[in-house]
Amino acid sequence: MLADAVAPAVLCSMTAHPPATKRDRHRAILDIVGAHVVGSQEELRRHLHGRGWDVTQSTLSRDLHELRLARVPTGDGMRYVTTGNGTTSGADQARAVLATLLPQLFDRLDGVGELVVVHTVPSGAQPIAAALDAAGWSDVLGTIGGDDTVLIICRSADARARVAERLEQMATA
Known about the structure:
Elements: H1 2-16, H2 22-35, H3 41-50, H4 57-66, E1 69-74, E2 77-82, H5 90-105, E3 106-112, E4 115-120, H6 125-135, E5 140-145, E6 149-154, H7 157-172
Antiparallel strand pairs: 1-2, 3-4, 4-6, 5-6
């Protein structure tokens, strides 16, 4: 008789709180990164654990990749930032990311022929290269991002001049 009285309460408890989904976990990650300066996967994992999520490093790494979060240097150290997610187009988001990151990460710019070389602070090149690729600038054939240097291959010398001017304007805005 006692078991009958307990069982419905357990069933109600289970149905009242459906299992969390990957989408819920992704929302939690975006909330945390938006509200806190998170500089490492371990720090993010602790924040998630505080919200009831127990995730492995490999799951968290996949989530960060799927959410297009990048670890970039800031004045306060490294932190995760979003590089494209939401309702706007990927190119629009990439342009917004460039406008946000370039002033923080840009050091100087050089160019020759069809090539532009963007020098950044350490660890700043990858997020900029990814955002440039995603932005889909017609003058840019592609990029190669190292640790603190981005090589941009342009369609022509004239295109290089336009790209360099555009990057300089964004970096000093």
